[in-house]
Amino acid sequence: MFIVFIGPPGSGKGTQSNRLVEYLGVAHLSTGDMLRFAVQEGSELGKEAKGYMDNGALVPDELVVDIVGLRMSQPDCANGCLLDGFPRTLNQAVALDEYLRENEKALDVVLELKADEAEVISRLVGRATTENRADDDSETVTKRLKVFHQQAAIVTDYYKEQGLLEIIDGMGSPDEVFVRIKRVVDSLGND
Ligand code: AMP
Predict the structure, then answer these.
(1) One of 36, 71, 114, 133 is an active-site residue; which one?
(2) What pTM was computed for the model?
(3) I need a labelling partner for 32 at 20 to 30 A (CA). Which of 62, 67, 72, 188 fits?
(4) Is the CB of 8 under 6 A from ligand 1?
(5) pLDDT in tens, 85-139
């Protein structure tokens, strides 16, 4: 099963995607995690990506599309994966479609996790102190959310037109949210 999981930073997307990959037994591709790892490693990709990430801006499409393509061609993604944080732009969405079509695969569903903005900001600023993430101070958080909302509408409209978009209410406990996600995923192929 190929799933795109969209949600603003702080929406609980990380927690829910971890649960979902475990439930479905598919690979988890988080471009945020992959890019943070590249920065830590000090690889060429990491050096190029760091400035954008520290500013709360998107990393250029070419870089992100390349790492996702490489990752998706690995054997553990042959039967599916959960894409977390990708695609974030129309170019990325089109590149993903092309990749899937060339490999005779297709997306099953696009999940959009919606959460209250004030709740999201307070969660993110709280996370800065516990995880010591340089990109989570309040100014950067606000910038990241603005970038997210500007871009997300383009991507979600694109998938809505294809009839792939499912909106999930992200408010409530992690268990409550996961029940809503499972309901959507379990119904696939049954309608
Ligand atoms: P995330 O953990 O998904 O919020 O990503 C953290 C940061 O990594 C973002 O603020 C971007 O700078 C970068 N990033 C992650 N995924 C993408 C993507 N699909 N396209 C561009 N930049 C990305």
Answers:
(1) 133
(2) 0.88
(3) 188
(4) no
(5) 999 999 999 999 999 999 999 999 999 999 888 888 888 888 766 776 666 677 8
